[in-house]
Amino acid sequence: MKVVIQRVSEASVVVKGECIGKIGRGFLVLLGVGSNDTKEIADKFIDKLIRLRIFEDENGKTNLSLDQVNGELLIISQFTLYADCSHGNRPSFIEAGKADLANELYEYFKAECKKRVPVVESGEFGASMKVSLVNEGPFTIVL
Questions:
Q1: E strand residue ranges, 2-143
Q2: Which of 40, 73, 82, 84 is deepest in the core (most CB within 10 A)?
Q3: Does domain 2-142 sit in CATH 3.40.50.2300?
Q4: Would the pLDDT of 130 be above 90?
């Protein structure tokens, strides 16, 4: 599993001209599922995501987690995180999870996050999406 977390002041996703997900302050999460990923692996990533202390406290130090700032999540499926560009100029996606596994773990990831975060929005699996964000910092973490 590969996860890119961007601390945002706002983010949204549009599919076929319609906004299907929008958040305020929180994390834009790009989620890539690999061919060997499991729910147990997803659980570890979710726990890390929820506990990450990358919001500034009153002293300007990154000490606050998502729940401490009433943060929101926008979760986007992105198999291209598994692009292998080591040979030639056309990326290979051999290590990315097959669509059925990837969708199952994407849905699981979202459902588990919804148990812990009051506002969780998402993109549409397999769709062509336009994702917009205002990255605070900028602050981006790769897990």
A1: 2-15, 18-23, 26-32, 55-56, 62-64, 72-77, 120-122, 130-142
A2: 73
A3: no
A4: yes
